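Saturday, quiet lab. Running sequence design on the structure tokens for the scaffold JK sent over.
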């Protein structure tokens, strides 16, 4: 998971440039990279919708609750600098197309979710693991259905 895995996205190219500047400095640091937040799921669907249809790739998707992000960033902030990147993600992994199909249905959202392996995500095509953390990531605790019940 990382901005450098999605080179066609201008936003993510800028994030990569920022990370490289931080990593090349002499200042101790920790970069916390999080997967997509549950709180941004509707916005992701809105951005990818054209004419009532949301095209989404059938890749892995592991969103995290903002509450978990806050807790894990706080933990990183008081720990010794890692002088590297720390990945965090949600506790559950889903096929992205199935996740959005279920989420939109649960919200009674009439948009059609179409599985498209070439669907673009913020300007770039995804690979299977573009949006998920590595195996050594720290995982949040809040599951999607628990979070959805709070929202």
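Result came back. Writing it out in full:
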């Amino acid at each position: 998971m990382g901005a450098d895995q999605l080179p066609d996205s201008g936003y993510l190219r800028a994030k990569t440039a920022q990370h490289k500047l931080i990593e090349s400095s002499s200042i101790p640091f920790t970069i916390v990279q999080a997967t997509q937040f549950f709180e941004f799921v509707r916005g992701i669907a809105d951005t990818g919708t054209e004419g009532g249809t949301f095209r989404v790739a059938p890749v892995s998707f592991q969103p995290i609750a903002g509450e978990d992000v806050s807790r894990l960033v706080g933990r990183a902030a008081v720990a010794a600098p890692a002088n590297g990147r720390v990945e965090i993600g949600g506790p559950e992994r889903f096929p992205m197309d199935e996740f959005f199909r279920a989420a939109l249905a649960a919200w009674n959202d009439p948009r059609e979710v179409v599985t498209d392996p070439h669907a673009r995500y913020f300007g770039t095509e995804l690979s299977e693991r573009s949006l998920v953390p590595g195996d050594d990531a720290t995982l949040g605790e809040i599951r999607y259905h628990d979070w959805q019940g709070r929202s």
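Notes for JK: Residues 30 and 79 are 9 Å apart (CA to CA). The first helix runs from residue 10 to 24. Ask whether to fix the surface positions before the next round.
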